[in-house]
């Protein structure tokens, strides 16, 4: 199994600065932020499943656009997975015939371009030997993270979250764990904003990880570009035992 980072920025910031999207092999996306723009129409046509962490645009903006771009090349609907509450938000506020056509009934209700499939936190599903599990997240809208397990190794992605000890208890007990991707959007100088927006800043993440142990690479995503260097300096001081590294678009993990 390969996981390719299409985008991981906390805001758009030019070439290579797309927002969150991870490509698993050639047929699964985790989130559909502007990083999806790195894919060709042919690559988009190969994607059968999209797992959404939450409804915010930096994680969903290219979902409606990719449906339209690939529609002529596909014979089966694209399946969008998320907790039911998030699917309801996407249907009500995105695929609503106002912001974008309702592709859950286009070209017909019997043969739609998009179908929704609920995956609740704590539940897993297997797709061609790969297991995806929805993990708890704490954000200003309903949210989830995801673990992807090939059977030989696993990668965890927090999605957008703030203080979340339940998530870390699950992660620290996970077998075959190779990589943990966690967001940290703000520096500690903006801790009040991080708390209000329910994102991590370095001190909040360090508090959550104080008594946590795992043997896996810790990677930081969703940094606000203007603060990225400061955030990483603070994380490397606060979490030196984990040796955290900034996640970069284009990186490929083999599991």
Automatic annotation (TrEMBL):
Top-rank lineage group of the source organism: Bacteria
Residue span(s) of domain Metallo-beta-lactamase: 18-199
Coiled-coil stretches: none
Alphabetized Gene3D superfamilies for the sequence: Ribonuclease Z/Hydroxyacylglutathione hydrolase-like
Protein name according to UniProt: Ribonuclease BN
Keywords assigned by UniProt, alphabetized: Hydrolase
Encoding gene (name): rbn
MF terms in GO: 3',5'-cyclic-AMP phosphodiesterase activity; 3'-tRNA processing endoribonuclease activity
EC class: hydrolase
EC number, UniProt record: 3.1.26.11
Biological process, per Gene Ontology: cAMP catabolic process
Segment forming the signal sequence: none
